[in-house]
Specification:
Length: 206
């Protein structure tokens, strides 16, 4: 029992008997309102943050492989199996005789519900020329926007050459105007995947 409630009960007992019933009804109504507000209040996922990020990232990489193959890429495979904790890529794939080393970025909206305006992909100071040469490939990316609570996602493909530089990072601009202006390739729009866990959301859960 909270100190505030204990104080209210003491004051109730000190009232004249003819006033106690009315005061008790007021107190009970107040407690019921507080309980209702508490039960209706949004809460955050109970999933630990590192687990949420890991599971979302793993799902994104697996989904990107499926989407790339659907878009005509061949020999799509996980480069992290060859090089643990690869410094850039997650996948490698070939299409129309062009080779690509592909970084996969899977992101929620911001915690306030607004679209994430950009996905960081690598530090500008990191020189990846050698990696591109080793794979004889162009550096590219897949960006996946997710709404875990709705089990919905959209995905786009592009190359490093298409994106702009933000501060000390290469970022993928992901506002609608950026997607249209930079002519990203659409891999999926508002598709449903029931394997998505609603707890992967970083937003407040209603």
């Amino acid at each position: 029992m909270t100190q505030l409630l204990q104080k209210a009960l003491r004051e109730l007992q000190n009232l004249p008997e003819n006033e106690q019933d009315l005061a008790a009804k007021v107190l009970l109504r107040h407690l019921a309102d507080r309980e209702q507000r508490s039960s209706a209040a949004p809460s955050r996922s109970k999933m630990p943050e590192h687990v949420r990020r890991k599971e979302l990232g793993n799902w994104g990489e697996a989904k990107a492989k499926v989407l790339l193959e659907r878009a005509g890429f061949v020999d799509v495979h996980d480069v992290n199996e060859e090089t643990h904790n690869h410094p850039f890529g997650d996948l490698f794939g070939i299409r129309h005789e062009r080779r690509f080393l592909i970084s996969v970025k899977t992101r929620n909206p911001q915690s306030n519900g607004r679209s994430n305006p950009s996905f960081n992909i690598k530090k500008k100071s990191r020189d990846l020329t050698g990696l591109a040469t080793d794979y004889k490939a162009e550096l590219a990316w897949v960006a996946i926007q997710v709404l875990p609570k709705l089990q919905k996602f959209s995905a786009y493909f592009g190359t490093i050459e298409q994106i702009t530089e933000e501060k000390d990072r290469f970022s993928i601009p992901m506002l609608d105007r950026d997607i249209s202006r930079n002519k990203y390739e659409l891999l999926a729009r508002d598709e449903t995947d029931e394997q998505m866990n609603p707890e992967w959301s970083n937003a407040v859960l209603a």
